[in-house]
Amino acid sequence: MLDTLLHINEESTGEIDKTQIERLFVDLLLAGNDTTSATLEWAMTELLYNPEVLSKAKAELKQIIGKGNAVVESDIDRLPYLQAIVKETFRLHPPVPPLLPRKAGADVEIQGFTVPKGAQVLVNIWAIGRDDSIWENPNSFKPDRFMGSEIDVKGRNFELIPFGAGRRMCPGLPLALRMLHLMLGSLIHTFDWKVEGGFKTREIYFEEKFGLTLQKAKPLRAIPIMV
Ligand code: HEM
Fold it and tell me: What pLDDT, on the 0 to 100 scale, is given for residue 218?
């Protein structure tokens, strides 16, 4: 991509200059790196803490991909349980935390409250994901809730909006989803995993650290075992 943009710049069509190229790459690297890696780490933590979910995911991969074969992008559509695991991870651990800013374009009334034109509205994605009026047992990691469900993360279902929604929603969604399924599928299909020292208490492994992205306070340390 950099090569192509530099090429366009050298042709001096005035479409993009070097400063714009630099800023674009800073944006992409900042927005794309920690978000994806934090989600992967949360997904692995949930899977290691919920071994019955991990076994089910492994069984699906074994059946669809076959032992010894690598997971490739075109397999993702055929792995509904893996997709459900990624959605469930986003529900409990949305990496862009947790308040999405918006500005009311006009006076609006929502559930008896008037939000005046121009007010800043902060949408709490994290709280929506754990709302017990929307989700049954909201604090449990249960990917099965998404099996056969129409809910996805593409901004159409407001109960699950880890990438935001509307015109400002995340432009990296297609890349992030492809990478996450591919990496997570590959990690669990290729290796068995053991948590270093074993799980002690849920609190230690699920403690959050607030920052630009919602990271784990204590990194997951897991040992891969070749299968
Ligand atoms: C798990 C992965 C990711 C998640 C959960 C995520 C989530 C988000 C969210 C919630 C927003 C704000 C959207 C809104 O206001 O409605 C956003 C914006 C953005 N994301 Fe992502 N993102 C991810 C990965 C990526 C990747 C891989 C890229 C690019 C390589 C990327 C690029 C951007 C950019 C450029 C914006 C700003 C868009 C704008 O304000 O116009 N993101 N992302």
Answer: 87
User: Does some domain include residue 86?
Assistant: yes
77's tokens: 């559509």
Residue 184 covered by a domain: yes
Give the total number of structural domains in the chain. 1
Return the closest-CA partner of residue 118 out of 127, 133, 108, 109.
108
Whether 185 and 75 have beta carbons less than 8 Å apart is answered as yes
Is residue 22 domain-resident? yes
Residue of 170, 177, 178 to mutate, ligand 1, most atoms within 8 A of C-beta: 170
Check the annotation: does 66 bind a ligand: no
CATH number at residue 201: 1.10.630.10
CA dist., res. 87 & res. 193, Å (int):
21
Residue 122 included in any domain: no
> How high is the pLDDT of residue 29?
87
What is the span of the domain harbouring residue 84? 16-93+138-152+171-226
Cα–Cα distances in angstroms (integers) from residue 196 to residues 185, 216, 227, in the given order = 21, 16, 18
Answer yes or no: are the C-beta atoms of 223 and 197 closer than 8 Å. Answer: no
- Ligand 1 pocket, CB under 6 A: 27-28, 31-32, 35-36, 39, 95-96, 100, 162-165, 168-172, 175-176
Average pLDDT for runs of 10 along the chain of length 227: 91 86 90 92 95 97 95 97 98 87 94 95 94 97 97 96 94 96 97 87 79 84 91
Query: Which pLDDT does position 226 carry in this prediction?
Result: 86
215: three-class secondary structure by DSSP: strand
pLDDT at 33: 87
